[in-house]
């Protein structure tokens, strides 16, 4: 295998192939390892020296800056490690975290001439035969590539993302060394990582190799766009496949405002509140509905479009949640709403935050103290950033760890909340999130969601009237929530085979304790009556019944006339 094979053919990360290549060329590894060790040795000596002189506290900011500079000097792999660590409050000191977050932007660009040569060789045409205009310098430089603004000969405005040169061999060598170090260090580290360290390096390598395959990024963008194809709120740039390769990505230019640019957003007459609403709702949709989520939603990757839509870019780092994880997440939200802390602790085990052998008994009261108080104060005061900060404290007391996937999700949620807060300092994530979850449960399009709703509504076999009331009240604070279609779906479900159990339970609930729960029904009715005007209700009821065959309707409602006016298609 020559270096050409390693650079050209390894679209996917393959630890064994990389190891085979480098074992035959040990000098490459030694040279690089010396540079890395040299940089970090000075840094660690510096920390120790501060300790000895008792100035560690005073110098901590200086050391954090020094660490960031070392990572930038060591190049893309280390910048990416720094970015990944900046999401791990369970592993990294807070002052270092704040410095590492800066690795997301403001990186030095690479030579223009190299970038232009790369565009020509990758796309197979001279620049002039593709673009009528191309910015003389990159408009942005990031860890893995830089972006030019241009116009195709056919007139469309485009962003052209060009990868830094020689990324594959650089990343491969660094990953090889990291993996080697991980296999030696694993047994000695007192870290509560819960995994073999080499597996973490492998996961990191896999993600990194995916990220430098721009064809993959293009496919991700199209998949994301497909998920939101019916949404009037989301804009995803089109990919120009003809001018896209593994190392050059040409996509539609988004003429919007970055979400950090509040002034321009307001000046353009866009309502920041609406953009926030879209950002949070689409964020939740990605996690809880599609499971395919943008794992890097920093403000540079989100745009407010002049027409009020929100634009997403940069689909290099996406992640897919399994069906079970998605369901457990919804469960966790349900348990949180219901204040079922024992079940919530159980969800943490299922999601991998706690190992299955953990004794959750002492954790339950701690969760209650942390979350119960936050929720009790006022739903609107529940702030995600405070909760995660508090949660980081729990991590030191109990054997919590953050599974890699959730580090991305948590970072994504905290960043989104941060962006929203910069647009509206009074923003409360739950004011958007709660209604969204309540609405989803109540409209329960899938069998799993309906089952979850039933879990919310019944505790230990007893129907929880209050919960239904709360949920309807919360859902109604969401402008998109229309009670009637929900009621229609509920009726549809009640009449289905699957709903038979619920029918029985509801009858039991209504007559529980040998009394008719008329008061509760009356309260519910007061809550919903304004939404239910009689003609719409009748229409909706017929809508439901029309989907059943005449025989089925007759079976459910024995007194219904078999030759009635219900449409039987
Ligand atoms: N379609 C686009 N329309 C307008 N601007 C764009 C577009 N694509 C990229 N940019 C600009 O280029 C910057 C970097 O792009 P992008 O985030 O895709 O690169 P990246 O190398 O993946 O960076 P990182 O992963 O660090 O965010 C964006 O913040 C934005 O300013």
TrEMBL record:
Residues 102-344 form the ABC1 atypical kinase-like domain. Transmembrane segments: none annotated. It holds the Pfam family ABC1. InterPro entries: ABC1_dom (IPR004147), Kinase-like_dom_sf (IPR011009), UbiB_kinase (IPR050154). PANTHER family: CHAPERONE-ACTIVITY OF BC1 COMPLEX CABC1 -RELATED, UBIB DOMAIN CONTAINING KINASE. Belongs to the protein kinase superfamily. ADCK protein kinase family. This is ABC-1 domain-containing protein.
């Amino acid at each position: 295998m020559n270096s050409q094979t390693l650079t050209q053919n390894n679209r996917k990360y393959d630890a064994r192939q990389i190891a085979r290549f480098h074992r035959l060329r040990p000098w490459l590894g030694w040279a690089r390892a010396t540079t890395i060790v040299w940089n970090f040795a000075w840094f660690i000596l510096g920390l120790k020296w501060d300790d000895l002189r008792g100035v560690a506290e005073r110098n901590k900011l200086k050391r954090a800056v020094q660490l960031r500079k070392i990572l930038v000097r060591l190049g893309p792999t280390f910048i990416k490690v720094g970015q990944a660590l900046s999401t791990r409050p369970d592993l990294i000191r807070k002052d270092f975290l704040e410095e590492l977050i800066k690795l997301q932007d403001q990186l030095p660009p690479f030579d223009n001439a190299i970038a232009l040569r790369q565009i020509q060789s990758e796309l197979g045409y001279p620049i002039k035969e593709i673009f009528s205009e191309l910015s003389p310098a990159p408009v942005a430089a990031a860890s893995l590539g830089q972006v030019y603004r241009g116009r195709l000969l056919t007139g469309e405005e485009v962003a052209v993302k060009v990868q830094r040169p020689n990324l594959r061999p650089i990343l491969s060598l660094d990953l090889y060394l990291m993996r080697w170090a991980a296999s030696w260090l694993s047994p000695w580290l007192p870290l509560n990582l819960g995994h073999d360290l080499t597996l973490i390096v492998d996961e990191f390598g896999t993600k990194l190799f995916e990220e430098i395959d721009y064809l993959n990024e293009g496919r991700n963008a199209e998949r994301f766009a497909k998920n939101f194809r019916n949404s009037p709120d989301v804009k995803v740039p089109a990919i120009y496949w003809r001018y896209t390769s593994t190392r050059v990505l040409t996509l539609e230019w988004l003429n919007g405002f970055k979400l950090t640019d509040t002034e321009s957003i307001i000046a353009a007459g866009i309502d920041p509140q609406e953009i926030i609403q879209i950002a949070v709702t689409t964020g939740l949709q990605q996690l809880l509905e599609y499971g395919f989520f943008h794992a890097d939603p920093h403000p540079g990757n989100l745009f407010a479009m002049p027409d009020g839509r929100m634009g997403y870019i940069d689909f290099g780092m996406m992640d897919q949640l399994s069906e079970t994880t998605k369901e457990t997440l919804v469960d966790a939200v349900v348990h949180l709403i219901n204040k079922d802390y024992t079940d919530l602790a159980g969800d943490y085990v299922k999601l991998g935050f706690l190992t299955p052998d953990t004794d959750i008994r002492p954790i339950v009261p701690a969760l209650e103290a942390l979350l119960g108080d936050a929720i009790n104060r006022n739903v609107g005061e529940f702030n995600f950033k405070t909760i995660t900060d508090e949660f980081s404290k729990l991590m030191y007391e109990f054997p919590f760890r953050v599974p890699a996937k959730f580090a991305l999700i948590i970072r994504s949620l905290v960043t989104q909340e941060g962006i929203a807060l910069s647009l509206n300092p009074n923003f409360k994530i739950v004011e958007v999130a709660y209604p969204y979850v309540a609405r989803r449960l109540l409209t329960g399009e899938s069998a799993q969601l309906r089952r979850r709703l039933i879990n919310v509504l019944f505790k230990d076999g007893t129907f929880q009237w209050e919960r239904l009331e709360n949920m309807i009240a919360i859902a109604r604070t969401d402008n998109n929530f229309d009670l009637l279609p929900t009621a229609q779906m509920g009726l549809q479900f009640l009449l289905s085979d699957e709903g038979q159990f619920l029918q029985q339970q509801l009858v039991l609930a209504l007559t529980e304790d040998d009394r008719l729960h008329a008061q509760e029904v009356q309260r519910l009715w007061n809550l919903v009556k304004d939404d239910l005007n009689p003609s719409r209700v009748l229409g909706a009821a017929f809508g439901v019944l029309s989907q059943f065959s005449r025989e089925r309707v007759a079976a459910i409602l024995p007194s219904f006339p078999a030759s009635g006016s219900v449409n039987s298609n």
